[in-house]
From TrEMBL:
<dbReference type="InterPro" id="IPR016157">
    <property type="entry name" value="Cullin_CS"/>
</dbReference>
<dbReference type="GO" id="GO:0080008">
    <property type="term" value="C:Cul4-RING E3 ubiquitin ligase complex"/>
</dbReference>
<dbReference type="Pfam" id="PF10557">
    <property type="entry name" value="Cullin_Nedd8"/>
</dbReference>
<dbReference type="GO" id="GO:0006281">
    <property type="term" value="P:DNA repair"/>
</dbReference>
<dbReference type="InterPro" id="IPR036388">
    <property type="entry name" value="WH-like_DNA-bd_sf"/>
</dbReference>
<dbReference type="Pfam" id="PF26557">
    <property type="entry name" value="Cullin_AB"/>
</dbReference>
<dbReference type="InterPro" id="IPR036390">
    <property type="entry name" value="WH_DNA-bd_sf"/>
</dbReference>
<keyword id="KW-1017">Isopeptide bond</keyword>
<comment type="pathway">
    <text>Protein modification; protein ubiquitination.</text>
</comment>
<dbReference type="InterPro" id="IPR001373">
    <property type="entry name" value="Cullin_N"/>
</dbReference>
<dbReference type="GO" id="GO:0031464">
    <property type="term" value="C:Cul4A-RING E3 ubiquitin ligase complex"/>
</dbReference>
<comment type="similarity">
    <text>Belongs to the cullin family.</text>
</comment>
<keyword id="KW-0833">Ubl conjugation pathway</keyword>
<dbReference type="InterPro" id="IPR016159">
    <property type="entry name" value="Cullin_repeat-like_dom_sf"/>
</dbReference>
<keyword id="KW-0597">Phosphoprotein</keyword>
<keyword id="KW-0234">DNA repair</keyword>
<dbReference type="Pfam" id="PF00888">
    <property type="entry name" value="Cullin"/>
</dbReference>
Amino acid sequence: MIRCIFLVLDRTYVLQNSMLPSLWDLGLDLFRENVLSREHVRERCFFGLLNLIKRERSGDTIDRCLLRNLLSMLNDLHIYHTMFEKRFLHETEESYSIEGSAKRSSMEVHEYLIHTERRISEERDLCLACMDHSTLKPLTLCVEEQLISKHTEALLSKGLSHLIVENRIDDLMRLYKLFSAVKDGIQSLCTHFNKHVKNVASLIVLDVSNDHTMVQDLLDLKEKLSNIVTKCFSKDLKFVEALREAFESSINKRQNKPAELIAKYVDQRMKSGNKEATEVELDRTLDQIMMLFRFIHGKDVFEAFYKKDLAKRLLVGKSASVDAEKSMLSKLKQECGGMFTGKLEGMFNDISHSKELMAQYRQHVTTKKEGKVPNIDMSVNILTMGYWPTYPPMEVQLPSYLVKLQDSFKDFYLSKHSGRKLSFRASLGHCVLKSKFKNGNKELQVSQFQALVLLLYNEATCFSFLQIKSDTQIEDSELRRTLQSLACGKARILTKSPKGKDVNDGDNFNLNTEFKHKLIRIKINQIQLKESVEENTDTTERVFQDRQYQIDAAIVRTMKTRKTLSHQLLLTELYDQLKFPLKATDIKKRIESLIERDYMERDKDNTTQYHYMA
């Protein structure tokens, strides 16, 4: 009011005297010196202001206009930053320190995060509405320090795993947002995330009782966690790497078995019996499997089991999709290179060439009109020994007409490829037998061993175990499993006496002329050994044997180049060259073996030094 009355002086007299302050500035100086410079007045003013803010934080409705005007006055008097703001931030720190400890103890983590987010938002609104905007940054930092930074470890230890297990997407997004604002918050969150993933993934990998679900459980876990990283953690590269490292560490805590199970999982998905998946779904599944494959160190173990199962699918025609098989091969080649997939590609080429060869053979038989060849549709796959798994030969007694059929093809093949050796593997053969029963004709899909047994019943209706063994020459344990499948399975083409699941030397087997089945074409499943254990052990042992050869070759190659090398440097070279997990003890054994075979020798004066021997 005074300024308005004497405004003319401001415009005339003061303007002509530059040393004089304006009436407004003079009034502010006088008010500051005579009113707010008095401590008891200033303290009561500050107390009132802080009390208003405290009531606002408690949820009361206050006169924000009054608060804004008072704080604006302090700013005009140049004591807002120098006196009030420091006091305000100190009070805020104490208030939220107490509140943070109390709420953390009484609230669940997700509730605490919501509370913290709300508090930060409220403080921002109050500051922008009533205070100088420069206060916003230190105020926000103060609240974040007291509600987040001080409780980082407790919040993450108490609640992160629960939020992830429960898939609380919104709460995890809130957690990431809040922790992004504080120093080292993201690093702490990332460390705890990595630890959680390792704990959960390791439990899955090390739980031997659930091996049958391990791969699917890992795929489900990875998909869930990847979704969290994408949606909640903004695809932050720190979390992408933390997830990758945690999975790689966990999946390799148990050597070899995960690689084997991943290969078997692929086999299950690739088999034609897997009707659930479309081509698109199958390709997506293969991409997920490749993600797990990248984590395993023992990729040679995967390759061995994958090759064994792929061979079965190709030879028995059980692949769900040739395109899917080739897609998987392409993914493996892209990941590991042509050396890894060379033999697998060779297997596909063998199957393709075999189809062409069979077309030529059928044309040859038709053209030559070989009357001696029985009218039986035969298909032969020519397998290159180096590409395929090892199949032990098993000599069996074939009926004469099947021998003629084999000889006819063998003569044809050797006439086109002189100098090659061709041998048949009965264990891989399979047939379709047309059978006549009282209740109708059936087509039986059987293995070659099952076929040899059933063909005997064209001559008689009853045979003893020993007669069958003598007439077929099938190896004893294989014959017992074959007879179990024919006489003790779901489709009982034969009847056994005496009854029982086990096949003994004194048993007799009769043709079941009363056989009934709703289907015309029936697959007679072969009884499996706990084959899995024996066969899998053999496969694993072959991998270890191959590793020994690779270690030997790498040592000789390195020593031949370097001539003389210390033990430690040799280890370093081998770790760099070889792609499978290596133990120092295994390398030491191979070095000893090479020394015994005179490929290298120890230095006479320094036993940790080796010399190459030409």
